[in-house]
Amino acid sequence: MINVAADKCFYKYMAVVNVVIQLRAEIKQLWNDVIVRAVLKRRRVKMDSSAEYFLNGLDRIVTRNYMPTDDDILHARLPTLGIQEYCIKFSDPAVRAALNLNEWWIYDIGGTRKHRAKWAQYFDDVHVILFLAPVHCFDEPAGGEATRPVSRLGTKDRPTAPVRADSGRRSISRMKDMFELWQSICSNALLRRATMILFLNKTDLLERKIAAGKDPRVHIPGHYNSRDADSYLSWLEKQFRAALRIVDQTESRRTCFVYRTSAVDITRTKVTLTSIQTMVLEKSMRNVQLI
């Protein structure tokens, strides 16, 4: 029965592949057509961030013996749906004994508003928060609604206060919504002892947007004078750090590590994750007073 089901899936898959192969030339022609590109730009059609990568590789990808490369897998940007759990077991007895731990649990949780109500049950006994902030979304709406330029994301010393859901405002930008989410996580009493790790993520898409002529200052006016990515990222980092400092005024200051990341940059991502792994291990060893 299992083999029959697998065969059916395979034949359905190959039927789709054959159709795409037959239309490969037409798809390529449409994608490379100057008029089509102009219409997409004029109508502000929002395509998936990885669409250009795959459409530019049609000759390599649209074949019957296609095997995805590491870059293909990294460019297949899939949203996190629900809550995914991952368990990392320590195989080395010396590590288990030193840390007084047999395993780590990692929870990958969706960041959309409809998923946030499910987070609370996972906040007990959390040691590290990895917060991924997509820095390219300064011109995108939160929740798919129409956006407008915001008057202020925050100031140098005092980030803007969260906006209540019932405040009657028509919409906020995705960047502002993300910043308010950071504030709410920082102020959560269950997470007061958690180390905060902030990823200013998707810097590749940010640079691409700026190169295409989009200016973050139009949508998020702030204390940065240049439209280049580095100035914008430096300013964003200050805003996130300032929000954490305000929450921690009467508490012991938490450690906050900030990294600029791009998932498609394998080398830089590997270095970043190795650094985080070392930091988490050191914290675990401090907790058991080994260092």
UniProtKB/TrEMBL annotation:
GO terms for cellular component: cytoplasm; heterotrimeric G-protein complex. Coiled coil: none annotated. Transmembrane segments: none annotated. InterPro entries: Gprotein_alpha_su, GproteinA_insert, P-loop_NTPase. Pfam families: G-alpha. GTP binds at L74, H75, A76, R77, L78, P79, T80, N201, K202, T203, D204, A263. Mg(2+) binds at T80. PROSITE patterns: G_ALPHA (PS51882). The keyword GTP-binding applies. Residues 144-167 are annotated as: Disordered. GO terms for biological process: adenylate cyclase-modulating G protein-coupled receptor signaling pathway. Keywords: GTP-binding, Magnesium, Metal-binding, Nucleotide-binding, Transducer. The keyword Nucleotide-binding applies. One of its GO terms (molecular function) is G protein-coupled receptor binding. This is G-alpha-domain-containing protein. It comes from Phanerochaete carnosa (strain HHB-10118-sp) (White-rot fungus).
